[in-house]
């Protein structure tokens, strides 16, 4: 027995440990896969200036943002602890772990938190309960700060430099060439800084850059001629070789000298390189005029050349003239150039410019003959380098002509030269006058049902004009806000045009780079600052470009305030009763009329309660609308309660008719019905009606007694309580009647019963119930007795009620099943009562049902939810089991020892 005791004890301890220490049941949170806008193709990469980059572009070194616009479809099940994954592009890098909160699109609450690991390719959003309870308009935005991803180079970049004379026979102009090789690297925004030796000067405008395919690369030159340093900047990213060329000119036209350059390379990718080069010029000797003597020979005379070109080949009305004087080692003392113009042109005042071989300006005086056909260009001083003169003339007329100039040179050193140039103009057919560009603007609601976002559209028609670097400035009304990143520009052929949008208060500036001859559409969005108030939203746009095209357009849209529907009258219901045959008053026609009053009747239910002296006639009910069309009607009967139900939505009045049959064919009686209407749209109504049937007067039989009218019979026993008139006595409250002692009250004989207090028994009509003897009560027929309602029962008429035994009255609880009473078989035996059974759901103190609330895990267990049992209850049950086992073991042990 002792072994059994310890066996029980061990089992009890084991069970208790399993209950207390068992792990909780965990439900893993799910990933929301129906979310839209978080895949890598939806990510938008922008730099600090708002420029958009593709997901596969090599990003210049710097900081960027990755932007998402996401949404969850309505109807998607979202729970606290669920997650969403957003994918990051491969060309960016997360420099350090990042955690941040996400706010709802309305700004009214936080929907969860996002986490990204350092160097991760995706981020995780863990949701809270906000989207679980807010099931509509679930959308938002995400902006993540990132940096460009550094690529591993194949090797260091390299740069080389060379120099050569433009004309080896005249070493007065040098070509410098720089070659940059990326060696697998990306060259982003290269910068080349070049330092010249002091015996040369950079030739303005001579720089040129090309890629490996010979395509020109935009390059800008800046620097100080005094310090002999120039900086060349190239914009963009390149993975091929880059060639940079430019020129310098020696400060001295002749003489032995060495010219060198030192160049350094840097770019945004951190690459560096350097290169240098030099070139020599030998000293020049003049051969003797007579061989074998030291007398110098004659110098070559100066030379002059002249050229001409159209300032604008498409508009042949202005000419550029150029005169080049080559000194050939001679000194040019106070040079003077006389130019004779043909009569079909006119000199442009102030257009003359004279420079030396280094590009330095030389002061030049211009005088003109009285007829304007001769020009004299004069300079003061002595010059030992070439001189270059440029000026302009305008043409007269528009026909085919030849324009020529004859120029002569002379100076105080006796140098002379002349040159001629001419140019022809062919007849160019005049182009038809083009219509100016036009711009139209339109606006529409993004969602007509949710008037909080506007779609704006600008349609620009080129009309044959060239649109060069268009700029559109759009001024919004102050009650709206531009949606960042919403601007899109597309040509008529479907090509996307890069557009940069900048918002400054209520002004938005859209800039497009390039030249376009096609029409294009510009679209963008704004959001309204208020949700449902009446307002007008207007925008005025102005277009301009570098080809001097101009246009303007405006548009507006109104939003009406949300209309509040006027209050509707509630529905109403009336009821009427009539005999089917006035000569045979055994069947009654009942009519229920429901008036909708413009309300919607959704799944109507009418509950009709009959008095207990009539019975529903099966299949007699039908329902019609106000046009007389039959409506599908479902009828169910439970005792004296008839339920009429209609499935669907109705907006018209309806009528329900049906019949009942009296339980007795004759006799005075009142037949009444009480109906209650409800539906799924919250409508309620009630109606009642009744109809009387008088008694049929028949000759009295000798010795018979007419039944007394209700309420007229006096109690027979002296000293007994007078019966109260119906409706004058306050109903007793349930549970307030003191039960009489069993056996102290004799059952009353038929015809002598005291009337019961109002509110305890439904009155029966006189003559309808035979008085029974104690213990021999006949059961009532089903469906003929009205169920009792607390406080509403009329007192029975004297002489018609079965005697009640003392102590059998049970107070009625409205939410409990009425107790049943079994009468004793002997007059003095007490009645037995079956206690009432409470309904499944008891009302609480606030009128709500005590339905157990579903278990909700405590917050802080994201992303998983806990569903383990109540540990406190388990502990108590285990302890009770342990005590029980110990007691049983102890008793067994005592029994064994005896």
TrEMBL record:
Membrane association type: Peptidoglycan-anchor
Chain intervals with Polar residues compositional bias: 841-853
Keywords for this protein: Cell wall, Membrane, Peptidoglycan-anchor, Secreted, Signal, Transmembrane, Transmembrane helix
InterPro entries attached to this UniProt entry: Adhesion_dom_sf (IPR008966), Fibrogen-bd_dom1 (IPR011252), SDR_Ig (IPR041171)
Subcellular location: Secreted, Cell wall
Regions of compositional bias (Acidic residues) in chain numbering: 697-719
Transmembrane segments: 875-893
Matching Gene3D superfamilies: 2.60.40.1280, 2.60.40.740
Compositional bias of kind Low complexity: 720-729, 744-753, 760-785, 792-840
Name this protein carries in UniProt: Ig-like domain-containing protein
SUPFAM superfamilies: Bacterial adhesins
Domain SDR-like Ig: 65-146
